[in-house]
Queue: 3 jobs
Job 1
Amino acid sequence: MKRPVAELVGTGRYTPSKVLTNADLEKMVDTSDEWIRERTGIRERRIAEPHETVAYMSKMAAEQVLEEAGIGPEDIDAIVLGTASPDRLLPATACDLQAILGARNAAAFDIQAACSGFIYGLSVAEGLIASGMAEHVLVVGAERLSTITDYRDRSTCILFGDGAGATLVRRATDGRRGILSGYLKSDGTLAELLYRPGGGGCHPPDEKLLADRSYYIKMAGREVFKSAVKSMADACDRALERAGLTSEDIDLLIPHQANIRIIEATAKHAGVPMEKVYVNIDRYGNTSAASIPIALDECVRCGRIREGSNVLLVAFGGGFTWASMVVRW
Ligand code: ACO
């Protein structure tokens, strides 16, 4: 088995207190609580208030990480922030986070890999440590999807929510705990199955953009569903294979929380029983890059992850992108 180069230490999360329930959505679009629960597993999601920016939520999560890791903001060498809903298009939200966190010695940048952004970020952090560029990398997944969700489109607005989660990646300390394997993959030919057509350089902001609502997320749900099941299965296989482990060695599977049926299909393929799968989609919906780090923090704090636990992370999202990682805690 590979000797880990980097390990995760400390976790944190922040979710807004405002709740949007299925009953609330029934008043906004033609849908029902029963349809949403049966098709997605979601009961409610959190929605950010204006002051709860991506940078703000990230800071709240990051401060918990720093406290647990026993380091100060000035000890951070790099901030890698996965988000598909940045506070501003320029600069990177990671730079805004750097400023409000006081991480004055860090290099800060965003990763745009949609729901796979947190695992992509962990992988980049591992690489920065392996190359000697950094010792302490703050990795954050944070989203304010409510700002890019079309609340007139019932096929997407029932899915998304806001929140942030974070961890610190540092040089491995004992040759046992840490990142045992990782796998990243993309397929840009399928980009238009899940995208925001307007607002960027191809369709700069204009009146048409506001009228056609192309600023918001558009998704071909059924096609995305099929690809998600296939890709997350592939990603589980690859991470296990690269770690030299089998599903029996896995103590906990934390899949990206997009849809309970995708999660169940992924677990079945990976050969991990549902008792060993963490699910919180009922409470938060799909928070894209924030979904895995929020779940990770919940698992650490409630004792589902303990010293020595082998944890399999797997995600899929717009791009398409997919990714997986085996981490020994
Ligand atoms: N309420 C009631 N009916 C609805 C709703 C709704 N909210 N939304 C769609 N429907 C209808 C459709 O119009 C359709 O009706 P029709 O048969 O008369 O045409 C019917 O329900 C079935 O629609 P489907 O899209 O086939 O429903 P499906 O079972 O596929 O569920 C869903 C839709 C939940 C979106 C699912 O496809 C899904 O979860 N897709 C994957 C999402 C995902 O994984 N995204 C990845 C990451 S997101 C990111 O990267 C930001």
Note: The pocket of acetyl coenzyme *A is lined by residues 31, 35, 39-40, 84, 114-115, 154-155, 158, 194, 221-222, 224-225, 228, 258-259, 262, 286, 288, 316-318 (CB under 6 Å).
Job 2
Amino acid sequence: MKKTISLILIAFLSISFSGLKAETIRLDQLDVSKGTTGWPNHPTQVNKSIEGNPLTMKGKVYQYGVGAHAPNRFDIKVNGATRFSCVVGIDDEVRPAPTNEGIAGYNIIQVKNGVETIVKSGVIASTDESVVEIDVDITGWDFISLETTESNGNNWSDHVDWCDAVFEYTGEAPFTVYYDEMIPKFHCMFNHFSLPNTRMMHRYKTLNPKDVIHVENLPAGLTFNPQRNIVEGKLPAGKYSYTVIATTTDGSTITKEATIDVRSNLISPTPLMGWMSWNVYEGDITEEIIKKTADAVVEKGLLAAGYNYIAIDDLWHGSARDANGYLDCNYSKFPSGMKALVDYVHDKGLKIGIYSDAATRTCAGAIGSLGYEEKDAEQYAKWGFDFLKYDYCFAPTDQATAIERYTKMGDALKATGRDFYYLICEWGERKPWEWASAAGGHSWRTTLDSRDTWDHGRYDTEHCGVVQAIDIMRDLAYYSGPNHFNDADMLMTGLYGTGKSSSHDGANGMTNREYQAQFSMWSIFASPLIVAFDVTTMNDETKRILTNPEVIAINQDKMGLQAECIYNTNQIEVYAKDLENGDVAVAFLNRKSTAAQIEIGLDKLFLEGSHIVRDLWAHEDVMTVSDKISATVQSHEVKLYRVRPAGTSTEELNETDKSIKIMQDKNRLLIQFTDFQNDTKQVQLLDISGKTLMTKSCNEKTASFDTSNLSKGVYLVKATTGDLSITEKHIIN
Ligand code: GLA
């Protein structure tokens, strides 16, 4: 009897449960402001097209839906919902769209256990005869993502409508989330480099700020600061590792192994500084131009300020490989051949770079390196090059092939046994910050080609102005450090609209204030500082900007951090960068067309007590503050500050830090060791080929070489103590 009652009860319960009618909720009833659209300043529209018209596709007007612009994405927590249906297409407001416009890809993505799987995809075009109908069973999914993409290389006229978009659910309704809240994921790098006994700082974050991060197995010498999620300290030369763990909001953990490679012979402990030929000359490069640029870089004080690379960009190439597969230069441009040019540039105390592409052709159509990586690397090494920029035109769009091709060339460069700086140039399209360092890269372009303009107006597939590059760099701060930097592309300073490619599309140059702002931002971003103008005609204003030692010191700081954006509202941005000696560099950026008052609390810089604020463009201490820094900033101006504790001077702080300085006066090279007590010290004078001419051991703070009997030329001075070793070039005239 008892059994019969239970059976009846079960039957009744299951009838009544299956009889519960699922409820429905439409996409336009959710918070769609969390969705993204690919048209800046045009947020998603509820029950309207992206331009505010009635939602209309193929002549039919839809009462309910969301107007967006590709590339766009909505991420929705399914929350037990079972079914999603909608129609998607291009709004009639763009009809007839110009050829190759109004075409987008669409994806319906399942997210389950942190894994994204595309379950439906295709292309929608304004020329389609009907809309695409979607109807998917989403039972058991964690999230559903609705996405549109640029399928035809541009997003022009991609006005996307998601209409009659309905979820069926029982219980609590689904809701939109930010992408960051969906998949537990770190948003930072884990392979670190450092010079020995130099302060380092590793910053960690996940996409969801609510996740909790901690570290385990830290080597002695490093500590973890849970308030800031940073590991910091100093280590002697060696290889180290430790574990980073994030506990996500749902209680699961993600674990990563961090590695640290500490050595004195890093190729790029600080961002590269130099000159590159493309923007100003494009294909009109010649031996004479490179030589006169090298002369000017030395004579006009750019080398002394730190610009020590000259790089030849595209179109140096001969027209065919030889029978053995080697490629020579174009002799009508470089009549003495590459070796002679490389020697000339080296004799000036400069390093020299060359260019190729990870495909059969370069961007401008010369011969690329695909399939000839070893031969090309061997050739560059034989000529004596020190740097390769490796471009990505005519290559497949996926990330895996890019990793494979860049690693192949990275390995080929290493196999030559010569030190190469390796610049990876795939414009940030395949997230190189996640893999380019492992491929051997020392920096990677994060942006499309820069143009000589403040605001290029659109985020298209080819070019960007200063603010577009800043918008991309802003989010990448935790992917930069010694020996591997985000590269925001060449500086426009000095061009004044006279460049070639940099002035395409009417980019007619900027004001000195804007050039100074770009230089300030690239400096605090720890981006390579690569100029691209005719140095022989450099004016005083350009020289003042490019050689400001206090600003360059921010860029060249040995901790190698990229500044983090700590305030970003209404076209006002504030950035902060921790410096090796404990000072903090701060940039106030005003993107508005009018002046603005900007302020930031010292607490946002993790500083307490009284601090002196030095204006690095005015070269003076401008305020002593204990609560906040504030200033009026002109339109398109950057105020760049160095903040240090009150009662100190920068010199005093340096005195307490270990350092080696090499100075030159008329008849002497003077080497000064600070704070090494009784460590054994050795100094060597070498010729440019690396042959030792003189060696001295010393236990004192200083050592010197008499240079009065040396013939004119470039010499190397190497100073070593403990794990620290530096080599500098000096010109004896
Ligand atoms: C690409 C690169 C540029 C330049 C040109 C040369 O566009 O991004 O920096 O090297 O190729 O063709």
Note: The two ends are 111 Å apart (CA to CA).
Job 3
Amino acid sequence: MEFSIKSSSPDKQRSACVIVGVYESRKLTPAASALDTLSQGYLVDLLKRGDMEGRLGTTCLLHKVPGTLAERVLLVGLGRERELNDKAYLEAVTAAFKAVHGSGASDAAFFLSELPVQSRDLAWNIEQAVLIAHASEYEPGTLKSTHDKKPRKLRKLALCISDKVHQAMAETALKRGQAIAAGVALAKDLGNLPGNVCTPTYLAEQAQALAKTYKFKCEVLSQKELEKLGMGSFLSVAKGSRQPPKLIVMQHNGGKKGDKPVALVGKGITFDAGGISLKPAAEMDEMKYDMCGAASVLGAFRAAAELKLPINLVGIIPTCENLPDGDANKPGDIVTSMSGQTIEILNTDAEGRLILCDALTYVERFEPAAVIDIATLTGACVIALGHHASGLFSNQDKLAREIEQAANTSRDRVWRMPLWDDYQPQLDSNFADIANIGGRAGGSITAACFLSRFTQKYDWAHLDIAGTAWKSGKEKGGTGRPVPLLVHFLLARAGQAG
Ligand code: BES
Ligand code: MN
Ligand code: ZN
């Protein structure tokens, strides 16, 4: 889809579809009102007759409205005017694009970006509209051998503003939205690929291809190099699989030389069967998504590179499979991590922390200003927070607040969870420095506590995205989260918060 910012009024649109809003009180937005005047009350008549009530999420497609130059007018219900908050806006815009795609129009003029959404501004409205437009046309690259005939899709979208003074700001928001959407699409694509295609080697190749396109540094460490580094914990998970593990190390050096980098560390388990502590069969296919943390790091890198963010950025992805095998980890095994701490593996299905701990030790060499790890780490986090918020844990209140701020701006939300020392004894082991599980109570917290033992040398935050990275059921698929959150965090660090 081709996007543009246009400063123009709805009556001048020769577009195939003009998109305007109507409130539940049947009050027209200024853009709808202009069309109504032009058509001598056609829209108001229609509302009076009850064809459209303006309820949130409803739409009404009109053809050849008298007096207008457009082929179609799409009325979009906005709900109650007083209740037009960000959630309502997103719902209305989602409904609008769904209707446009079904209409056969190949181009459209969008007049909802200037709606007075509570606590949000024009730039936010535009960025979100761009993200929703992209999401509305996203299709997973399927491996189906026959294809349904697809309806004609929107090719051009003009985001209309009424005043030229906002042109530059609107263009910036558009660019941002485009970059984030590209990162989201990459994260979705990688997540949706099956485990037999998206292997650790495949992920590494994708990282290298991305680095080549966007001209950032990428190095892939092989099993031998990981052995030399002493990553006994990471390697113990990988040894139950025939696919060799990889450590992907990426660097985008957009900032000043010597500026400490922000580091993103993503869990890249390309399939998690649980290992010897085998998972139940039901929905086990979804464990192909256990590399969504890694995918979000790649997505954030793509967006950061596309926006040429003036910031130094490091991306680390430990990637392997977790399978049962004669050579796999066994409950009770004790391994030595790169940090020197020994770990008793009481459950081989708690493998994410075992690969992350070594990556979190490795990242020390970059003297990072802050480290954020992103992982589909625990089912317990899904029980605690459901599918709306990612779990946020941090050893630094200021960093946590920055992430909360970015989550609010991007509406890719998080909820802070405790990391109190009181939970640490749950990880005591009789035979090693630490156990890899802490019992059922507070499962996502003890997982974060485990990681905290390896992150004491820097400011660190952990995002548990087990509930937010993909959708189950009929709409099964990756969500691309938390790419929007990460990009907004990086924008703020680059001094470009908006
Ligand atoms: N990848 C899973 C976490 C997960 C489970 C994500 C369900 C999304 C949905 C992780 O490796 C895992 O298996 N965690 C265990 C930890 C337990 C053994 C302490 C879990 O959550 O059951
Ligand atoms: Mn697991
Ligand atoms: Zn896992």
Note: The longest helix spans residues 167-192.
